[in-house]
UniProtKB/TrEMBL annotation:
SUPFAM superfamilies: alpha/beta-Hydrolases. The keyword Cell membrane does not apply. GO terms for molecular function: hydrolase activity. The keyword Acyltransferase does not apply. The lineage of its organism: Bacteria, Pseudomonadati, Bacteroidota, Flavobacteriia, Flavobacteriales. It comes from Flagellimonas iocasae. This is Alpha/beta hydrolase family protein.
């Protein structure tokens, strides 16, 4: 067990080995009842999700009349627009047809258009021979394939639809086909490994700014439909949309938001968030609208927002998108369709297979569109010749980034971040009002709830040597878990001050690697160490997911965001629980200072802003700003779990620093978003606001920054000097 490892390290570092003391380790075995605590983080947010989804279900159960459903539908549509948007004004598409391929019974026009100015989209329009105008048309949204719409599976479906008389338009989503945004222009290689990773790597930056990359994915499709409607071959009154997996997600989104689409058939996507949390966990960034569950929505709302328009839900029984969730969502939506008098407009087909397109399901989809788009014919799935990837290449080089001066989602979001920074700069002019608003906004956006029920601490034993003692406790966490904590006390010259010490790598690392622990103890301070959710023995947990990037599960982070919470907010709550223990149990009359090593510095800033009993704050090798992550194309993935989705709409870490005035803050060897040490220019630039406040009010010595501590005094020596200066 991790707990035993921590204890063994503590024991060997701090105490002489004797046979009797080694035997005493056994009394820690009752920790085994908390043996799943490494999954506490995701399970905590899963529990919140279940509670919120139950609240939604209770509201759904109360809908009885057609007007009840229509009233909810209006509310749902407004919420979806708010969560998926805001969408920009439409600008000229500037479409280009780069080549036309003639095939047996149809032609393929290779298309490029601008979804936004200089934000290019590659696609292909398939037109059956003989079609001149007003043919039924289908937008096909492809799933997460490396090849984008060129995948043989997707091509088989598209060409079958074309052979049945449908005009079909399809595009490459961001991060797929010819739209890789992290393509190495010189090396001709992928900088990010999978489409899901591209989606979430940029998606995390957008979420920190308060919105989902689903915004761009949806907009690309809406503009693609605009292009379809510009073509005389397309009947504007007979438009359908389908797609599998990520394409099913886009079909659900756009079908709910764009009234021009008459019939939709999302494939291998519709389920429910309850079963997503119970199985694979939330998927990549664009599939998670900002705080969607917290705002009372689930997959069923994508269907119900369209009612009573025709929908076919296509599922497989062994899909990782739970079939049980799909069945329950269908049943819920069927109640609405029946109440509206159109039960026949909602159908569901399923086949016994994994996450794949099956012959049975394809035939059902063809028949559905043939009926609903008034294009009768045979629904048989026929063998077709599929063009090669090379034949379907739209750009000259095979990538937009090397063929055009195209913008990326990273660049588009960076522009939003600049606007958010300008708004904060304006607010900062009135410091007193800004500081109070920042603290309130940080609590709301981070999902922080001030602890009121602290439970009872569980004392787990003590080791004593001639110089100091070590005590072990379990403290009640903000969820159904305990916070493992160590208390180190000097036996002589004990100061009336406790140091809370949080290492982003966990207590084990702190005791084994951080030289500061021993020296702070030797100075006479009592030290309290604790593992916070997702850290040390409380993490990282089993869930990895499709966006497990460089050892970091973005999927768990999405799981907190969906319920209106954050890792940072939860950890700030637990820091205050450790603070309460220190103030109310250890030294009721003593001072409390706090040190965070690594990116946990952000969590400590939040906790200190929420609770003034933390009198001094030290940050070692910490991030200085969330905006630094959004402004760094290749940021370090390790930092994402230490950020707050939506924060930049109202505040950043420097705002929290300023709100601590006049309390003492020291920043030692801060890091940039790429993981490299921050230089003096970056430090002064990012911390200009709090440094200016402290200087203006004559307390510049109370906010200090130190760099290259290893080359001058060590970081530990800087900490000791800081502690002594404030005694």
């Amino acid at each position: 067990m991790k707990h035993c490892i921590i204890l063994w390290i503590c024991f060997n570092l701090f105490f002489p080995k004797t046979h009797s003391q080694e035997e005493e380790i056994d009394f820690f075995e009752y920790w085994e009842s908390y043996s799943d605590i490494e999954n506490s983080l995701f399970k905590h947010f899963s529990t919140l999700a279940y509670d919120q989804l139950n609240e939604r279900r209770d509201k759904i159960d109360k809908l009885k009349t057609a007007q009840d459903w229509l009233n909810r539908q209006s509310t749902v549509k407004q919420k979806l627009l708010e969560m998926a948007g805001p969408f920009p004004e439409k600008t000229p598409l500037n479409p280009q047809i780069t080549e036309v391929l003639q095939r047996d019974g149809y032609r393929i026009e290779k298309v490029i258009y601008e979804s936004l100015p200089q934000y290019y989209v590659t696609g292909a329009l398939y037109v059956p021979d003989g079609v001149k105008k007003n043919a039924p048309a289908i937008f096909y949204a492809c799933g997460h394939s490396l090849e984008g719409f060129r995948s043989p599976t997707y091509q088989h479906i598209i060409i079958n639809l074309v052979k049945k008389g449908f005009v079909v338009f399809t595009i490459d989503p961001m991060g797929q086909g010819e739209r890789y945004e992290y393509w190495g222009k010189k090396a001709g290689r992928f900088e990010v490994k999978y489409p899901d990773h591209e989606h979430s790597f940029a998606g995390a930056q957008c979420l920190i700014s308060g919105y989902s990359t689903g915004n761009y994915f949806i907009w690309d499709v809406i503009r693609g439909i605009d292009y379809m409607l510009s073509r005389k071959e397309v009947d504007p009154n007979r438009i359908g949309m389908t797609g599998r997996s990520g394409g099913g997600n886009l079909t659900a989104y756009v079908g709910a938001l764009d009234d021009r689409i008459l019939a939709t058939a999302p494939e291998c996507y519709i389920t429910s968030y309850e079963y997503i949390y119970r199985t694979i966990g939330p998927q990549c960034a664009e599939q998670n609208l900002y705080q969607m569950i917290a705002k009372g929505l689930d997959h069923g709302d994508f269907i119900e927002a369209r009612a009573p328009k025709p929908i076919l839900i296509i599922s497989t029984t062994r899909d990782f998108f739970s079939i049980q969730g799909a069945r329950e969502t269908f049943q819920e939506a069927q109640n609405m369709y029946s109440t509206l008098g159109k039960p026949e407009n909602l159908r569901m087909v399923e086949d016994d297979d994994r996450h794949s397109s099956t012959t049975k399901n394809r035939k059902a989809m063809y028949a559905f569109f043939q009926k609903e788009l008034n294009n009768p014919g045979s629904p048989e799935d026929i063998d077709v010749e599929v063009p090669t990837i090379k034949e379907l290449q739209v750009t000259k080089t095979g990538q937009l980034t090397t063929s055009f001066k195209t913008k990326s989602i990273y660049e588009l979001n960076k522009d939003k971040v600049k606007d958010q920074e300008a708004a904060r700069q304006s607010s900062r002019k009135d410091f007193d009002n800004h500081a109070s608003e920042v603290v309130a906004s940080a609590a709301e956006i981070a999902g922080f709830t001030a602890p009121t029920d602290f439970g009872k601490e569980i004392f787990s034993g003590r080791f004593v040597n001639p110089d100091h003692t070590m005590e072990k406790y379990l403290l009640q966490g903000s969820g159904d878990y305990k916070i493992p904590s160590l208390v180190l006390k000097p036996l002589e010259n004990q100061k009336n001050e406790t140091i809370l010490y949080f290492d982003s790598a966990g207590m084990e690392h702190a005791i084994k690697q951080d030289s500061a622990i021993t020296q702070i103890l030797n100075e006479g301070y009592t030290i309290v160490l604790a593992d916070l959710p997702g850290i040390g023995s409380l993490g990282p947990g089993y869930l990895k997911g499709d966006s497990y990037i460089e050892g970091v599960s973005y999927n768990q982070w999405f799981g907190a965001m969906l319920v209106g919470k954050s890792f940072v907010g939860l950890r700030a709550e637990d820091i205050i629980r450790v603070l309460h223990f220190s103030k109310n149990v250890l030294k009721p009359d003593g001072k409390v200072s706090a040190i965070a090593v690594g990116p946990l510095g952000g969590e400590l800033l939040h906790a200190a802003a929420f609770d003034k009993r933390i009198e001094k704050v030290a940050m070692v090798e910490s991030l200085l700003s969330y905006s630094d992550i959004t402004s760094t194309q290749f940021y370090k993935t390790d930092y994402i779990p230490f950020t707050v989705p939506g924060a930049l709409e109202k505040y950043d870490l420097p705002d929290l620093m300023a709100s601590l005035f006049p309390r003492s803050i020291t920043v030692i060897d801060p890091v940039s978003a790429d993981g490299a040490p921050a230089d003096r220019y970056k430090i002064d630039s990012l911390l200009e606001f709090p440094l200016g406040i402290y200087t203006k009010k004559g307390r510049n010595a109370d906010l200090t920054t130190h760099i290259n501590a290893s080359k001058e005094d060590s970081a530990t020596e800087k900490l000791i000097h800081w502690l002594r200066a404030k005694d």
